[in-house]
Fold this protein.
Amino acid sequence: MRIGVLASGGGTNLQSIIDNSEKYSWKVGIVISNNEDAYALERARRQGIKSVYLETPENMLKYKPGTDIEEIMKDPARRDYDILISELLDQHKIKVVALAGYMLFVTPELINNHDIINIHPALLPSFKGLHGVRDTYNYAVRITGCTTHFVDDKEDHGPIILQAFTPVFPYDTEESLIKRNLKREHLLYPETLRLYGKGVEIKDRRVLYEVDDEHVEFQNKLLEMFRGDFGDYYTHGKQK
Ligand code: GRF
């Protein structure tokens, strides 16, 4: 399976996908970024993966968070940008597109022509938007997590594939929470793509897949991680 990755930042999720290439017989065929300095591009180059920087359309910069997504979707410059991406994906025979810290909305030009999966650093439908972890942290919930989902034309909205939960402790900072949550993300994305590669079905939003031994192992790893985090929590409590 050939995967295309769109990323705007550090690319640790991209790395987790690359690191599982051999195990799951997939290949990242192209990495595209709207950010010239994205470390994700550097990661791709280092692995000999085709990497492309496409400058963010200028008028995209005028959109502030909270702008009506329909307005963005209708913008011809945004459409043209996604047509370009779509052509690149086709040229590189990409089957599925993984958004990994990609900071632009995608338009129907992409959504209608490719299967697109996104990872969001919160338990959707809570804390949608650009600052999933910050918003979660500021709201001071006790449990958060991350979500993989198919992308549709609404923000962080398409059918959910997998979710993992992450505890939030009173002594957490935004940074410690990001770190704990990312550990789950790096398990969640490869497992999501593995299930996708085996074939999933979507019925009334519900994403159906076969629960095989590897999936059980994945779920067990998440539970172990959760237990491990609580171990740290108790130790921290006793040290006080
Ligand atoms: C992740 O937290 C992801 O959920 C969000 O953006 C962040 C990207 O991190 N969409 P990285 O670039 O993969 O390290």
Summary: DSSP finds nine helices and nine strands in the chain. The mean pLDDT is 93.
